[in-house]
Every structure is written in structure tokens, then in C-alpha cells.
């Protein structure tokens, strides 16, 4: 380990954050909120501009002459069928976050929006904003990062590292080596903190499910601790063996459960209302998405400004934090596809799926608020982790669907941690596609410790600010590697 | 100028400089690297 300074420094840095968080959770939370707040105030415009430019870049690349270029040698064929490729994309993007925020996010926006407009309009806007957070912009950030990785590794033969495009485009210079090294370090750091947050969110979600199932009231940290311990016991063994096939099965199982849950809610809830909500959301989304990418709420009051920072900006940097991790995964499964196929598949298909997902869970939440009573808004305010289960409780077979949600959340987190340990080990060993068990295990433990830090913070807002802190520097790197790609494409003869 | 304003200015100046560097890198003629080497060979021919 000491022979590899990147691995050593990355482990030390993330380990120190974990120790700081465990010893002084409040201190770390306060620090991250302060820095993130300062960055968001000063650079919020830059975050939005970057996300929008990446989306425009994707659209341009897909329809330009470069769209014909293959991510691989010219005679390479795709490794996976289009259907299974798309299914795997869903699995990568549809983590525990969708289960967690399905109803909770549209309702959270609704609470703020209805202070400024009438309730039906507020519901429409809330659904639009939620789709905006999980839609084209998010996937464009992933797509560009993955595209750069795929292009340089499959077409140019460079290792799957964030630093590789810089050296490929600008040669072996002092600056490309040092900036590249720093980028690899920041990528590792951003992934580790991002996955830590995902662990915490998964544990909060499972905890709420268990509380609902057993009628426990506010179990506090002890139940979270027990769930965390079980989670660690489940994800550590797969790190010791090659379980790539097993992981695909787990991931597909989680996806199937989540998909089944969505269809179940659609069919057992007020179907006409949900389908109408989805139809409206599709039109609203595609009509407003591009201009909204440049919306910074500059002239609104402080309340809207704070909401913008803690939701839109946080989500955008969250996607940047996950970009190296999801990007590597997407790149890995996209060998042999053309840039056009890749972009349309990665950006458009998951976005449409997200619109359906939030359309179902959001509309059913609004049905409760606008047609029944405000009870669900109280749940969002007092215990946001419980929102999904509150919705399920009002539908048939709630015990079964609650167990299914808990199981899916658990599986999503396990698969994320195992694959993240693999990607982190790969990054920290110079792009080794078969990192040794010891390195994977060390990363597994560090990820667990980071997850524990975020669980101890006992607040989803704290989790969001800690993730944002790690992700902010990565915005610069994604833009830099995008320029590397453009530079390389210029020399392609199409 | 308050400290808050100063920090804001510095954070934004960093972003402006970064954007400038990106534009410069994009248009800069390369003299090293695999890609750059192949570009140069084409131009020489």
C-alpha cells in the first residue's frame, strides 16, 4: 500500500473524514454546511451553467457527425443486447435514492411552492422540479463522464482512470501528471463520500420500514446501528470473492422489486389520477427543461434561495459526486456502441423512467394532499424517511409492499457498496481491472465507516451537505475531461 | 469590502480563470501526447 502514494493518501484522507465524523459528528456537519453554503452562494450559477452545458454538449454530440464514432475499435460490437444494456443503466441510476424520494421529494417542493401559488399549480411545479433533479441534466453529467472514460479506454487504449484523458489529449507533461493525479484522488474522495451518503440513506429507509412493520415509534440510533451492522455483515463477504455475476443478480432483483412496486402502486392507487399526472409531467418537463437548467432564482427571497441551495444545487453536485462511479460503470457496459446510441440510451431512457417513477409516487402523494387531507405533508415534515411507507400503508397488502421496499433498499445499498469498493480499488491501483482482495476489503471498511458517520449525523440534510462538500471540486474535473474529449474528437476523421 | 465579499470575489475569480484555461486548452495547438503527435504528423504530410 505504501508503494502506491495515491492509494495511501486517498485512504488516509477518507479515513480522517470518517474518524472526524465519528468523534465529532456535529462539528463535521457544521463545517460541511458552512463551506457548502458559501460555495453554493458564490458558485451556484457555475454549477447550473456546467450541468446545462454538459446537457447541450450531449445533444450536440448525439446529432453531430461525431455521433457515428464507436466507443471501441471500428469493428467492435456491443457486448450486451440493447435491452439488457438499458436494464443495467436503470440499475446504475435507480439506486436507493428513488425509493427514498419517490413521494417525499415532490411533496417537499409542494410545501414550499404553495406559499407562492395556488395548490394545483404548486403540485405541477413540484413534480416538474423533481423530474428536473433526476432527469436529463443528471444523466448528462453521468453520460459525459462515462463517455470520456469509454472513448479513451476502448478507442484509445488508456486505463479507465479519470486522469487518463488529460494525458491522452495533452501528453505526458508535468501539469497533466499532477492535475491527473489530483483528479484521481478527488474522484476517489467524491465516490467514497457519495457512497457513504447512500449507505446512510439506505439505512434510514430500511429503519423506517422496520419501524412501520413492527409498530416501533422513533427507535432512534440503536435500530439504525443494528441495520448498519447487518448491512456490513452482508456486503463484506462478496468483497472477498469474485461475485460479478452474483452482483448482477442482486441488482436485477432490486430493480425488479422496485419496478413491480411502481406498477403495483399505479394499479392499486387512483390509476386515472396517476396516469393523468404522468402525462402532464411529460409535457411540462420537455417544454421547460432546457431553460430551467439556467434558472438560479436570483431575484427571489431568501427562503426560495435556501430551498434552491438545499435541493437543486445539492442534487446537481450529488450527480457530480457519483459521476466517476456511475461513469465507469456505464462506460464498462457500453463498449462497441456509437456515441449517438450511447447518449440517447444513457440520457433519454433513464429520464423517461424517472418521469414515470416520480409521476406514480408523486401523483399519489398529491392525491392524498389535494383530495383527502394534509396528513402526508406532516409525515414529510416530521419524518421524511417514512414517506414511502406512509403511502404504501394506504394501499392494499401494505405489509408485503413494505417488506419489498425494505428488501429493495437493502439490496440497492449492498450492490452499490460492493461495486463502489471495486471501482475505488481500481482507481487507487492505477486502473488495475482485478484489484486484490485486501484493497477491496479496506475500501469496504472505509465506506462502512463513512456510512456510519452519516448515520450518526441522524439527518438527511447533514448527509446532503457532507456529500456536496466532497463533490464540489469534481465539477471542475468533469469539465476538464470534457474538453479533453472535444480535443480528441477534433482529430477523429469521420 | 467585507470578508464575505472578498471570499465571494476570490471564489468567482477562480471560476473565471478556470473557464479561461479550458478555452485556452481547447484552442491550444498540441506538441506532445499520442493525439497531439498524430495531429502533427497529419499536418506535416
Task: Name some characteristics of this structure.
A: 494 residues; mainly alpha; Amino acid/polyamine transporter I; B: 45 residues
Q: What would you say this structure looks like, in words?
A:
The complex is a heterodimer of chains A (494) and B (45). Chain A has 19 helices and no strands. Chain A is mainly α. Chain A has a single domain (5-490), classed as Up-down Bundle (Amino acid/polyamine transporter I). In chain A, helix 2 (25-63) crosses helix 14 (339-372) and helix 5 packs across helix 14 (339-372). The mean pLDDT of chain A is 86. By secondary structure, chain B is mainly alpha-helical. Chain B has one domain. Chain B has 2 helices and no strands. Chain B has helices spanning 3-27, 34-44. The radius of gyration of chain B is 18 Å and the shape is rod-shaped. Classes of the chains: A mainly alpha (494), B mainly alpha (45). At the A-B interface, helix 2, helix 8 and helix 19 of A face helix 1 and helix 2 of B.
Unreliable sequence segments of chain B: 36-45
Strands of chain B, count: 0
The overall average pLDDT of chain A, rounded, is 86
Uncertain ranges of chain A: none
User: How far apart lie the N and C ends of chain A?
Assistant: 44 Å
Provide the CATH architecture of chain A: Up-down Bundle
What proportion strand of chain B?
Answer: under 5%
Termini of chain B, distance in Å? 57 Å
- The structural class of chain B is mainly alpha
The rough form of chain B would be described as rod-shaped
Instruction: Tell me the quaternary state.
Output: heterodimer
CATH topology (level 3) name of chain A: Amino acid/polyamine transporter I
**Biggest beta-sheet profile of chain B:** none
How many discrete structural domains of chain B? 1
Name the helix and strand elements of chain A from N-terminus to C-terminus, one letter apiece. Answer: HHHHHHHHHHHHHHHHHHH
> Strand count, sense and closure of the main sheet of chain A?
none
Total helices of chain B: the number is 2
Amino acid at each position: 500500500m505504501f508503494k502506491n502514494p495515491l492509494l495511501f493518501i486517498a485512504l488516509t484522507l477518507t479515513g480522517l473524514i470518517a474518524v472526524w465524523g465519528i468523534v465529532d459528528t456535529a462539528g463535521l456537519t457544521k463545517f460541511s454546511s458552512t463551506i457548502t453554503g458559501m460555495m453554493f452562494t458564490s458558485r451556484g450559477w457555475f454549477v447550473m451553467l456546467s450541468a446545462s452545458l454538459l446537457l447541450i454538449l450531449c445533444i450536440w454530440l448525439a446529432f453531430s457527425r461525431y455521433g457515428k464514432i464507436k466507443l471501441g475499435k471500428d469493428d467492435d460490437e456491443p457486448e450486451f443486447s440493447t435491452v439488457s444494456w438499458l436494464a443495467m443503466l436503470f440499475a446504475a441510476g435507480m439506486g436507493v435514492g428513488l425509493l427514498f424520494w419517490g413521494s417525499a421529494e415532490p411533496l417537499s417542493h409542494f410545501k414550499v411552492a404553495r406559499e407562492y401559488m395556488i395548490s394545483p399549480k404548486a403540485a405541477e411545479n413540484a413534480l416538474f422540479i423533481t423530474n428536473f433533479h433526476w432527469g436529463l441534466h443528471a444523466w448528462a453529467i453521468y453520460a459525459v463522464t462515462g463517455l470520456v472514460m469509454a472513448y479513451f479506454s476502448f478507442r484509445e487504449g488508456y486505463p479507465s482512470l479519470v486522469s487518463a484523458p488529460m494525458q491522452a489529449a495533452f501528453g505526458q507533461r508535468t501539469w497533466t501528471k499532477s492535475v491527473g493525479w489530483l483528479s484521481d484522488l478527488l474522484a476517489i474522495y467524491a465516490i467514497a463520500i457519495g457512497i457513504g451518503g447512500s449507505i446512510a440513506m439506505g439505512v434510514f429507509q430500511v429503519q423506517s420500514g422496520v419501524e412501520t412493520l413492527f409498530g416501533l415509534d422513533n427507535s432512534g440510533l440503536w435500530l439504525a446501528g443494528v441495520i448498519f451492522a447487518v448491512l456490513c455483515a452482508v456486503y463484506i463477504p462478496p468483497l472477498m470473492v469474485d461475485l460479478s455475476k452474483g452482483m448482477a443478480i442482486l441488482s436485477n432483483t432490486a430493480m425488479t422489486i422496485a419496478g413491480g412496486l411502481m406498477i403495483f402502486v399505479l394499479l392499486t392507487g387512483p390509476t386515472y389520477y396517476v396516469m393523468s399526472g404522468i402525462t402532464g409531467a411529460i409535457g411540462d418537463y420537455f417544454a421547460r427543461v432546457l431553460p430551467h437548467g439556467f434558472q438560479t432564482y436570483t431575484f427571489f427571497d431568501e427562503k426560495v434561495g435556501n430551498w434552491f441551495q438545499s435541493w437543486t444545487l445539492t442534487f446537481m453536485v450529488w450527480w457530480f459526486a457519483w459521476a466517476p462511479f456511475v461513469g465507469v460503470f456505464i462506460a464498462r457496459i457500453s463498449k462497441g456502441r456509437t456515441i449517438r446510441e450511447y447518449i440517447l440510451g444513457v440520457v433519454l431512457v433513464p429520464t423517461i423512467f424517472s418521469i414515470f417513477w416520480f409521476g406514480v409516487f408523486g401523483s399519489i402523494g398529491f392525491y392524498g394532499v389535494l383530495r383527502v387531507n394534509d396528513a402526508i405533508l406532516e409525515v414529510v415534515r416530521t419524518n421524511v424517511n417514512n414517506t414511502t411507507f406512509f403511502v404504501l400503508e394506504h394501499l392494499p397488502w401494505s405489509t408485503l409492499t413494505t417488506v419489498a421496499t425494505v428488501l429493495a433498499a437493502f439490496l440497492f445499498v449492498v450492490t452499490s457498496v460492493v461495486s463502489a469498493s471495486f471501482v475505488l480499488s481500481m482507481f487507487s491501483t492505477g486502473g488495475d481491472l482485478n484489484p486484490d482482495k485486501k484493497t477491496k476489503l479496506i475500501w469496504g471498511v472505509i465506506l462502512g465507516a463513512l456510512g456510519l458517520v452519516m448515520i450518526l449525523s441522524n439527518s438527511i440534510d447533514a448527509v446532503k451537505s457532507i456529500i456536496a462538500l466532497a463533490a464540489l471540486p469534481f465539477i471542475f474535473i468533469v469539465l476538464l475531461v470534457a474538453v479533453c474529449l472535444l480535443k480528441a474528437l477534433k482529430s477523429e476523421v469521420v | 469590502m467585507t470578508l464575505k465579499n472578498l471570499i465571494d470575489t476570490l471564489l468567482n475569480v477562480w471560476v473565471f480563470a478556470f473557464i479561461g484555461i479550458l478555452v485556452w486548452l481547447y484552442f491550444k495547438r498540441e506538441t506532445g501526447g499520442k493525439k497531439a503527435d498524430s495531429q502533427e504528423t497529419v499536418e506535416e504530410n
